[in-house]
Amino acid sequence: MSEYLSAPCTAFAGTKRIASGALIDVALAIKAWEGQSQGSILTFDDASGAVIDLDLRGTTAEIVTRLTEHGELEALAAKSNRSRGRPKLGVVAREVTLLPRHWEWLGRQTGGASQTLRRLVDEARRADGGQADRKAAHERTYRFLSALAGDLPGYEEAIRALFAGEDGTFAERMATWPQDIQDHALALAQPNPSKAQS
Fold first, then answer.
1. Same domain, 72 and 42
2. Could you tell me which of 77, 79, 81, 67 has the C-alpha nearest to residue 25?
3. Model confidence, pTM
4. What helix, strand, coil percent values describe the chain, rounded to 5?
């Protein structure tokens, strides 16, 4: 199964979570659910918190074919962007734009520019202390909540607590909200949402 088809996502019918898992499984669950729902169904990418647009017209086979073709197009586009590097080792060549003084400094380093850049990135990640992961978690949670909970009481206070890193206050501000929204928001707010939901 392609990365696109297996991307973790979650679907809500109003405030009720109706499916969670791989995109293909969630899409088919939504198709089965559509007859039971009066309102709209929103599907969220669990990695980004963004709403995913799904074309669920036609039969199950047509939906699977459409999603498979979309996944293949994404994979082909990604592959065409990877012309150099060592893909089997997970090394992907991408463009880096630096000023001449940066290239000069990199040229004087032992091991060359690539090794030096990898080392600098690893050092920055260690020094970061998980800040980037926490920021990404806050952003994906915010995207999810702004799409689904913007009208709920205490929304603004919950968002302020989320970005302030006040986990207890964040949970308290959502206490009167529908349970499925609370649970999903708390899972997304963790640095690794897929582990938090399992």
1. yes
2. 67
3. 0.75
4. 60, 10, 30
